[in-house]
Amino acid sequence: MMRHLISAADLTRDDAVLILDTTEEMARVSDRPIKKLPALRGRTICNLFFEDSTRTRISFEAAEKRLSADVINFAAKGSSVSKGESLKDTAQTLEAMGVDAVVIRHSASGAPYRLATSGWIDAPVINAGDGTHQHPTQALLDAFTMRRRLVGKDALGQDLAGKRITLVGDVLHSRVARSNVDLLHTLGAEVTLVAPPTLLPVGVEHWTCDVSYDLDAVLPKSDAVMMLRVQRERMNAAFFPTEREYSRRYGLDGERMAKMPEHGIVMHPGPMVRGMEITAEVADSDRCTVVEQVANGVHTRMAVLYLLLGGNEPAVSHARPTDSENK
Amino acid sequence: MSKILIRGAKVLGGDVQDVLIDGETIAAVGTGLDAGDATVVDAEGQILLPGLVDLHTHLREPGREDSETVLTGTQAAARGGYTSVFAMANTFPVADTAGVVEQVWRLGKESGYCDVQPIGAVTVGLEGKQLAELGAMHDSAAGVTVFSDDGKCVDDAVIMRRALEYVKAFGGVVAQHAQEPRLTEGAQMNEGVVSAELGLGGWPAVAEESIIARDVLLAEHVGSRVHICHLSTAGSVEIVRWAKSRGIDVTAEVTPHHLLLTDELVRSYNPVYKVNPPLRTERDVLALREALADGTIDIVATDHAPHPHEDKDCEWAAAAMGMVGLETALSVVQHTMVETGLLDWAGVADRMAHKPAEIGQATGHGRPVSAGEPANLTLVDPAYRGEVNPAGFASRSRNTPYEGRELPGRITHTFLRGRATVVDGKLA
After folding, report:
1. Domains of chain A, with CATH numbers?
2. Mean pLDDT for each consecutive 10-residue tract of chain B (428 residues)?
3. Rounded Cα–Cα distance for residues A213 and A218 (Å)
4. Which residue of A has its CA nearest to B204?
5. Pairing of the two strands B115-118 and B82-87
6. Considering only alpha carbons, which residue of chain B is nearest residue A111?
7. Do B199 and A175 touch (CB under 8 A)?
């Protein structure tokens, strides 16, 4: 296992499957009356959030607490950062206080990479979303959700080979899209991005996925459709003409959802903009996994923290398949 | 002043000759010159070039003396083989009045390491709205002939047109930082394959190329000359080539870093590679080298941009843009142009001394190495190989992208009007 988790692209197929399998174990723990493991007792983890994100922070915090870690939450707002303190000084201050790992969220792409590679601190760094770059734990929880729904609960050791996954929306500004394209490719899935050309980055043709501008043509061939959040403000920068036009061409409503295969699922990283990229009918349907994704997020983050910090001891009493058994 | 005999140097990389300096002037060039009472500099195996001229330097004074001063900047220039530098106008306050350009000019005189020719801002406060008093800056003691809002583009077509026309009255030239501002809002790096992966805001080539295309057409329309700063894309090369073939009076510069480095380096998220215009692709690098070799690009200019450590020791988005370049420029040019066979040393002298002096009207610089000329000279040991060590820089800043990289060539001596400013690679 690697020391940091910065990018989904850094994960090998075996790394990723190990995380998914460990997540499955963590999920079982959450079904117990006492949802806590002693794995990280005495370890201190800092959630260093330079960008507001209540749901991601709470998800990490829940994961850390269920592993018995001590948790420090650090929000840049109202701290010395807002008085001009640098990322380097902030991180060094935290490390001096005995932090064993840093979970960082930052609006600048590459900030977690810098933190992990510049010699500023020694602690493992976990990327909780950086700018428009990466959000690896989101991709892992999405992959876990897909594996459970499309392969099954007893899918230990398996990847997503041959599954057809479609991501729809603002790819240009989305770290979720980048992480998912990387991880899903590693796990053997076939990924298609659907977006207006304005919301796809120049250079996307080099990504390990297909690109389409036509959602209706792609839906019948999609085992899962992930709707990305589209901010209304984007239309002020001429990425699309109006909210209504966006919804008509790229939004998912009940009629469109019906074009998907019976087993197809609808995913969303949240927060959803109902009426924009997704209608209430779709969001509230039982094909939509949004709430499941939130639950899986806690288990995935437990698995990541456990594997990065917890060493090689089995997390729970029953044996976990080893890498060799997986193959 | 004393006499100096430079013995056995290859003048412009050609024949081995002796060069006798008497006072501020080259007294004789020939073989077997008698040393007499002159101090002898043994230059066997070394290349003698005219003192280099940099049309694009940021000396940061006044205002950002924490990153560079006129003194430290000119010391860095001397170590890089330069005898003349043009100081960009984006200081604090901006060099948009006769007072500020005269201050920079006076500081240059006092430094004594290198002539400093201030560049005046085109518009007040570099804001692109109102012409600065270009005539007053020209008529000042600084005698400004080059005007630039560098760091910002003169993006308003009417302001650019007027500036191009206005400076004709006193033979000035406008040096354009070609960057369409709307196309580069939030831009962090070259827009392409790498930016798509890294999730950094893209700086598209078209933002440079569209401004160059507009400005060469404006220059043609009003019969003015225009200079393009730090040209960085293959497409820009094509436009300048086309403009020159059409007879438009355009000159262009390329930086050493755009001749060597590509946007692949940004994958490290190390802001030492953050620069404006950004590092481009391999294809661009090769096109720029080709264009410098065939004369489409006229000169090499450093865009020496010192920044204090804290402005680079941070996350990419928060970091300042720019690299120091004066002390590594010739080595990079030797590496990318001479050792690739694209340019000989006479060509280097042309691109780094003769032509920039001509464009900027730097009197007494970029002259031939012959008797009667001002003794502005630099000696290069081309056989030297060494890793770049920023701790040894004279510049106050260390933001070099070449740290630890092996580059060829070393300046052993620099002479400014007959006085050695660098001896054996050290400041005199």
Report:
1. 8-134+294-317 (3.40.50.1370), 136-292 (3.40.50.1370)
2. 92 97 97 94 98 98 97 98 98 98 97 97 98 98 98 98 98 98 97 98 98 98 98 98 98 98 98 98 98 98 97 94 98 98 98 98 97 98 98 98 98 98 97
3. 9
4. A202
5. parallel
6. B315
7. yes
* Residue in chain A lying closest to B270 (CA): A114
Q: Would you say the pTM of this structure is higher than 0.90?
A: yes
Note whether residue B167 is domain-resident: yes
Q: Tell me, what amino acid is at B359?
A: I
DSSP state, residue A80: G
Nearest by CB to B195, from A111, A117, A203: name it: A203
Contacts of B315 in chain A (CB under 8 A): 87, 106, 108, 110-111, 114
Inside any domain, residue B367: no
Domain count, chain B: 2
**C-alpha A97, offset from chain centre:** 29
Q: Which residues of B are catalytic?
A: 303
Helix (H, G, I), strand (E, B) or coil at A159: coil
A87 interaction partners in chain B (CB closer than 8 Å): 314-315, 318
The shortest C-alpha distance from B150 to chain A (Å) reads: 26
Query: How far, in Å, CA of B137 to CA of B133, rounded?
Result: 6
Instruction: Report the alpha-carbon angle A310-A316-A321, nearest 5.
Output: 90
- A13 CA: distance to closest CA in chain B (Å): 20
Contact A203 B196 (CB under 8 A): yes
Positions in chain A short of pLDDT 50: 312-327
